[in-house]
Specification:
The chain is of the alpha/beta class. The protein has helices at about 15-30, 50-55, 80-90, 105-110, 125-130, 160-165, 175-185, 195-205, 215-220, 255-275, 275-280, 295-300, and strands at about 55-60, 70, 75-80, 95-100, 120-125, 135, 140, 145-150, 170, 190-195, 210-215, 230, 240, 240-245, 245-250. The chain is globular. InterPro entries: Ectoine_EhuB (IPR014337), Solute-binding_3/MltF_N (IPR001638), TAT_signal (IPR006311).
Length: about 300
């Protein structure tokens, strides 16, 4: 989300082979799902929820990013966002979820062109994205972290280190980390943009990049089986000179406020009961990554 990702805007014991296999399986599953996406409505507040109930299925835009939304080694759709979506939409009267795979940078365009109904990819909520879609309140908050060579030979701990030490910097397509690096003084045209955290790990291991920036969760999970790379300690990036904590959540087309509001109502109950944390915990989330921030706050920047 990574990123903006953003995740703007990545499961224990998962190898790179499994990660890549999951992405491949994701394409197969998405291709198999041929039901038509609900079309746009002129109804104030939108009527997508009613139409999804009638169809019995909601199509989720995901980006094959562990742990946010991906296909596991058994071909099953999983990740923090899809597992949350299964529970919430079931309670809203929609029995099934169906994955539609795309690259992270194509999630918002795909949503707005009705390739799927909802973005379910742990997407960071930021002002730029809030001009294009509407968000539910965040279901998690997240700090950043780097993938670096074992031992962190260049001593890279934040974006200022990357600039000062003239490190070769990489991050993912559409990630918020692009802007964080630029704000720290890194030239945007010098950034190596890769599809996801697996490609970022590969770039660091191969020496094409000194550092790959992503969420603390994605970086620490993807390096677990690497002999050449490690994740740095999580840190808070600076935005306009101030510490900034990101929050990720579900995105909806701008007209669909009724669906967004219904989703938010269920999410609020799950936060209060602790159910949300129980769903996210198996994917590496901790209590420190639970949040009471709102989408309105994050949209202000």
């Amino acid at each position: 989300m990574a990123p903006p990702r953003t995740k703007d805007s990545g499961i224990p014991g998962t190898t790179r082979r499994k990660l890549l296999a999951g992405v491949a399986a994701l394409g197969t599953l998405g291709a198999a799902g041929c039901s038509r996406v609900a079309t746009a409505s002129n109804t104030p507040g939108g009527d997508l929820l009613s139409r999804l109930k009638a169809q019995g299925v909601v199509r989720l835009g995901i980006a094959g990013e562990i742990p946010f939304g991906y296909i596991d080694k058994n071909g099953k759709l999983t990740g923090e966002a899809p597992e949350l979506a299964k529970v919430v939409f079931k309670r809203l009267g929609v029995d099934r979820v169906q994955p539609v795979p795309t690259e992270f940078g194509s999630l918002i365009p795909g949503l707005n062109s009705q390739q799927f109904d909802v973005v379910s990819a742990g997407m960071y909520i930021n002002p730029e994205r809030c001009q294009q879609v509407i968000f539910a309140d965040p279901d998690y908050q997240m700090l950043d972290s780097f993938i670096v060579r074992k031992g962190n030979p260049k001593g890279l701990h934040d974006y200022r280190d990357v600039v000062e030490k003239k490190a070769k910097f990489a991050t993912g397509t559409g990630y918020a980390e692009i802007q964080y690096a630029v704000d720290a003084g890194y030239k945007e045209h010098d950034i190596l943009i890769v599809p996801d955290q697996v490609a970022g790990l590969n770039a660091v291991e191969a020496g094409r990049a000194d550092v790959f920036a992503g969420t603390a969760l994605t970086t620490r999970e993807v390096v677990k089986k690497s002999r050449k790379a490690e994740a740095t300690k999580p840190f808070t990036p600076l935005v306009k000179g101030r510490p900034h904590v990101d929050g990720g959540g579900f995105a909806f087309r701008s007209a669909e406020t009724r669906l967004r509001d219904a989703f938010n109502a269920e999410l609020k109950k799950m936060k209060a009961s602790g159910e949300l944390f129980r769903i996210l915990r198996p994917f590496g989330f901790t209590e420190a990554e639970m949040t009471d921030m709102t989408a309105k706050e994050l949209c202000r920047g």
